[in-house]
Amino acid sequence: MNLEKLSNAFGVSSGEAAVRQIIIEATQAHADEWHVDTMGNLFITRNHRVETSGPVPRVMVTAHMDEVGFLISEIKSDGLLKFKPIGGFDKRILLGKTLLIGQERVPGVIGLKPIHLLKGDEYKTVGDIDTMYIDVGGTSKGDTKVNVGDLATFATEFGYMGGQTPPPPLSPPDSGGETGGLARQGRVKGKAFDDRVGCAILLELLQGDYPVDLVAVFTVQEELGMRGAKVAAYATNPDMAFILECTAADDLPTNDAEKEVGIPRLGDGPAITVMDNSFIADRPMINGLIAVAEAAHIPYQFKKPGVGGTDAGAIHLARQGIPSAVVSVPARYIHSPAAIIDLADFWHTVDLMRATLTKGFPQK
């Protein structure tokens, strides 16, 4: 089950090797060629298998492998660890969370002062990350089995919600196919859905036959400023690019009776980005996605404009400019120990992108 394996994998920005290996193993049967660049981006090419008149478009489809996490910055004499964030965090969600640290996957806990020992207004505030520490059970600097510079991520396991039983894996395991061992309905939770969900969708797309040359790029260090995408877009030099993401859902209830539930919402289909903080989408590509969705009766929605940023911010500026569009699966609680997605959104995104790539695009 690709999404489960990808979600559980350790892959904080700059440490994506385990995620990359899962993808390489899953795509060997579908790749015409592949390589890894000096940044760690993984390029997998599947050449067109459907003949078409005129030039064959070169279409780049990306998803980033990295996840938010932490870097160990200091080991104190008492064995406690100081750390720095990698990626954006709401510090309120950190206290008391369990982590896995370094190559040895050392378990740790972000320290939390128990309510019994709080004084005055301490319970009303959350200290800065610089005041926090990780406890790995050590009693001195020498017995922690952790090194300065080690990366850490949340110790969260993928799982189905609402008592749903996962479907049996296909035979042989991870052979792909229509479901890839992942249910089409229900909701699942896991860490790093931003953007292992996009990676899992891209693995599904690599199994298809299209009238375009598909260059799938699994990028690195998106959470640190789209670093891998800058290099990848220049190297690929595509006619256009689609960025597959997992974006924040805004469908939770509020205490404001006058406020309507926001967008995007779980269960309403893939979210198309018109504009975010890093780019404005190519209008012909947006129109094409909408036309394909409506013709195939695939539900879709829009991401709230002007929020966040993705690898598209770097890709659309490469070379002379690359027409770009972002299609995302909405998720609750991204950049936290566990996010939740609706599997119908996942598969509708796969359906939309398959239909879009099958339609083909003229070169600009």
How many domains comprise the coordinates?
2
Order of helices and strands: HHEEEEEEEEEEEHEHEEHEHEEH
- CATH level 1 class label of the largest domain: Alpha Beta
User: Looking at this structure, what is the CATH superfamily of the largest domain?
Assistant: Zn peptidases
Architecture (CATH level 2) name of the largest domain = 3-Layer(aba) Sandwich
Sheet with the most strands, sense and barrel status: 8 strands, mixed
Can you count the helices?
A: 7
Distance, first to last CA: 37 Å
Please bin the fraction of helical residues.
10-25%
- How are the strands ordered across the major sheet? 1-2-12-3-13-16-14-15
Strand content: 15-25%
Characterise this structure.
The protein folds into 2 domains: 35-66 and 180-359, Aminopeptidase (3-Layer(aba) Sandwich), CATH 3.40.630.10; 69-154, Peptidase M42, domain 2 (Elongation Factor Tu (Ef-tu), domain 3, Beta Barrel). It is built from 7 helices and 17 strands. The strands form 3 sheets. Strands 1-2-12-3-13-16-14-15 form an 8-stranded mixed sheet, with helices on both faces. With 364 residues, it is an alpha+beta fold. Helix content is 21%, strand content 23%. It is globular.
